[in-house]
Design a protein that fits this description.
148 residues, alpha+beta, 5 helices
């Protein structure tokens, strides 16, 4: 692949994030958190590009810049491609990659990035939901004097 320095820069950004790895997917290097892709590097129409997912509003805004466009096949889900040859400052790319990582990574993994514990679960645990009917049955059994 042309632009190995682009790949080196993407590796430095992506692999510094918790629980990430590089894989060869569709013949191009991609970066995963767990088993989910959050960024990639490759060639489109003879130019080196990088890709990542952004919040939809951010993706809609950023494609107004001619260096960015909706990624093929997945652009409708917030994925954008960027002409890597037009990157002036890789510190501008880092927050875009981190945004993608945050959108893709599990909450516990994002918590590692933030240096804290994972947020508390919302709602009751499944075991608690199953316990409620048993408690109601026991109450009914007690009301009948312990007989079935």
């Amino acid at each position: 692949m042309k632009g190995s320095s682009v790949l080196d820069k993407m590796r430095a950004i992506c692999l510094a994030l918790p629980d990430t790895k590089e894989t060869l997917t569709w013949g191009q290097p991609h970066f995963r958190v767990g088993e989910k892709i959050f960024a990639g590097c490759g060639e489109e129409k003879g130019r080196v590009v990088i890709g990542f997912k952004l919040d939809m509003d951010h993706a809609d805004a950023i494609i107004q810049d001619p260096r960015f466009w909706r990624a093929p096949y997945v652009g409708h889900k917030g994925w954008v491609s960027m002409d890597a040859g037009r990157v002036d400052d890789w510190d501008e790319v880092r927050p875009l990659v981190v945004e993608s990582y945050r959108l893709i990574a599990p909450r516990r993994t994002v918590a590692k990035l933030d240096g804290g514990a994972a947020p508390a679960r919302k709602g009751p645990k499944k075991a608690a939901k199953r316990a409620a009917p048993k408690t109601a049955k026991r109450a009914a059994k007690s009301a009948r004097g312990g007989r079935s």
